[in-house]
């Protein structure tokens, strides 16, 4: 308990270890990166808040406070946090079932949800649960993000076409609404959204440092002005209600917390999965240390505190983080600069939001949703790994056909099922020696069609040998034996054995007795210290015998060949092992048959 308290105080300490790395040189680089980031996030914050069903200013508040707190208390030197498309989509999908998006009730519930998300994340960080994220397949995030992108796109098609907004629902419900109202398409709105999207496509080819979203919105607004859009029924944005957040505590009634707990857990998980994936990626790229549990605390603090300042749940942003790195950021001070510059830009540009047409912002969000889908990664998964394909498909299809927050649950469960299935099916392979570039190495005999010794099998087991895998392993042992008339001595290598329990030990004891009953023998070779300790504790070596336990394959082969039946050896022409030269009959081989 004492160590847990010390760890808690350390993770919450406002004096962070990275402070020592701040110099005059890093301050200059971080200031430039912060300004670039602020210019990018201004239209993003508005767009993401709209996706979440919240007033535009909430996205900007989130971009300031969440980025500031997560940057200071997180673990990444480069990651920038704030509103993200994935979390915005989950919040919209989860919360719109409780209240009308944009209503005061909806806003109050989202702030409560945000506080709960932060609390869950802080608790997870304090209990050092960061490593658990590694057990969740990356395909879950890919499939979920693709489903979220389609939901976002479906929600914005109506705005891009100038069609009256529907009542919500999933992807297909929104598309059906657009199809039913297609006769009401406003050509002016279509031109504005089309020009905005084309501008973004062109600007994206120039440079990541260009504030493409702002430029595209200016172009779209200019086209709207030239076409007289407001007089042709094109909706325009309402002015921001406030550029200063209202400070207040979220509603923490027991009934509301119980009602929102499943959604809060989903958002917390999605946020941590995003943040840790991004933070770890940049830490590896920049050769920097990274503590996923501390990142959990930083993300949790940013959300819990942000809920008092009209922020909704945020996480790490890959776009802003990548831009931060490209712009030359050196320390988390860049996020402080980004928050400060964003406040200044907000004061300067907020009055002009009312001149931005809704179709232009819809075009921006459609472009963002398209960029959210990682087509290259999806293609790679589909063509390389069946298990990951199943995880991706289960997550994506659940998000499309049911609820988006349920997609994460299904993806995680599928991911764990795949992990358990793989654990229950360890690799059991028979090896045989062959020459590769003048070196004698062991390769899979069946795969490479290599001859095997008629008296000895060298078997490798890679994976866990526990209650769930023993049946499969035993079946593979019988398959290895095949139709051999002569019982083979088994030499079992346990180098890749990373877990064994009482059931696994029982299988080894059974195989030892089976081999000896048939007139053969059983040898084990391994230097895996944990496996040796467990096998000794489970009394496997008492049955095996000290002489049948070897440190390496060569020792085991030498012992097995020495004990092999000489009458069989003298008529054998294969001479699989080098040690076969010491057996009867080797002197009668032709020179080109020597081992």
UniProtKB/TrEMBL annotation:
Transmembrane segments: 33-54, 61-94, 106-127, 139-163, 183-203, 210-228, 254-276, 327-349, 355-373, 394-421
STAS domain: residues covered: 446-560
InterPro entries on file: SLC26A/SulP_dom (IPR011547), SLC26A/SulP_fam (IPR001902), STAS_dom (IPR002645), STAS_dom_sf (IPR036513)
A GO cellular component entry from the record: membrane
Gene Ontology BP terms: transmembrane transport
Keywords, sorted A to Z: Membrane, Transmembrane, Transmembrane helix
Recorded topology in the membrane: Multi-pass membrane protein
The organism's place on the tree of life at top rank: Bacteria
Gene3D superfamilies: STAS domain (3.30.750.24)
Main localization of the protein described in the UniProt heading: membrane
Subcellular localization: Membrane
This protein's name: Sulfate permease
Organism: Litoreibacter arenae DSM 19593
Organism classification: Bacteria, Pseudomonadati, Pseudomonadota, Alphaproteobacteria, Rhodobacterales
